[in-house]
Amino acid sequence: MVTPIDRDEPVWALRDRLVAIGTDVLVDALRDGFASLGSPEPQAGEVTHAAKLEPAEFRIDWSRPTVELHRLIRLGLAWTTFRGKRLKVLAASPVHAGSPPDGAPGDALPGSIVGPRVATGDGWLELSTVQPEGKNPMNVAAWRNGIQPESDEVLGVSAS
Fold first, then answer.
1. What is the C-alpha to C-alpha distance for residues 130 and 92, in angstroms, rounded to an integer?
2. What is the pLDDT of residue 31?
3. Per-residue pLDDT tens for 36-94?
4. How confident is the model at residue 160 (pLDDT cuts 50, 70, 90)?
5. What is the SS3 string spanning the chain?
6. Taking the chain, what is the end-to-end CA distance rounded to the nearest angstrom?
7. Residue 70 — φ and ψ, nearest 5°?
8. Closest Cα to residue 87, out of 54, 148, 34, 136?
9. Per-residue confidence (pLDDT) for residue 154, from 0 to 100
10. Are 121 and 64 in contact (CB under 8 A)?
11. pLDDT (0 to 100) of residue 90
12. Which of 29, 80, 84, 90 is CA-nearest to residue 59?
C-alpha cells in the first residue's frame, strides 16, 4: 500500500494516519486466519541503537535554512525563546523565496518577527500555531496580539 505524505504534515498526524491504515491492513489480513500472514522469518543484520534525543536538539536556530527548520518543526518538539521564556513552534510553512514581507528590512536578522513570519538564514517561515510556556497552543495571530512584539525583538535571543 502507498500513501502520500504532505510536505506540511506533522509527524504526529502521519503517525495517526499510518496507524489507521496499518490497523485496516492487519484486520483484512487476519480475516483468513493467522496462516494468511505467511511464515515468520528472523530479522537479519546487526542490532542498532539510536541515541536518545535531547530537548536542546529541538531548539530552533533561526540562522539555519528555512527547509531545515520546517522539517524540525514538523517533528512537533521544536522550540525557541521569546522574552526569556520557551515558545514551542507547533506549525509553520516555508515562504517561497523572494522579497521580504511588507515592513521587513531586506537584511532582517534571523529570528526577526514580521507579522506571522520569522526570518531564517535564507528566507522566511510563516508561523501558524505556537505554544507559549505554561499556556495552551494558540494560533500565531492570538499570540502576537497578546505579546505586542517590538519591531527590534527577535526569537531565540536569551533575556539579558
1. 9
2. 86
3. 778 888 989 999 999 999 999 999 999 999 999 999 999 999 999 999 999 999 999 99
4. very low
5. CCCCCCCCCCHHHHHHHHHHHHHHHHHHHHCCCHHHHCCCCCCCCCCCCCCCCCHHHHECCCCCCHHHHHHHHHCCCCEEEECCEEEEEEEEEEECCCCCCCCCCCCCCCCEEECCEEECCCCEEEEEEEEECCCCCEEHHHHHHHHCCCCCCECCCCCC
6. 53
7. -60, -45
8. 136
9. 94
10. yes
11. 96
12. 80
Report the alpha-carbon distance of residue 51 to residue 65 in Å, rounded. Answer: 24
Cell 521569546 appears where? Answer: 82
Rg from Cα positions in the chain: 21
d(CA 96, CA 65): 13
Site of grid cell 516555508: 94
Cell of 22: 496499518
Write the pLDDT tens digit of every residue in 89-128. 999 999 866 556 665 666 789 999 999 999 999 999 999 9
Give the Å distances, CA to CA, from 151 to 77, 102, 145: 27, 13, 14
Measured CA to CA in angstroms, residue 65 lies from 48, 70, 123 at distances of 30, 9, 7
Amino acid identity of 100? P
Cell digits of residue 148: 505586542
Q: Please, are residues 70 and 94 in contact by the beta-carbon 8 Å criterion?
A: yes
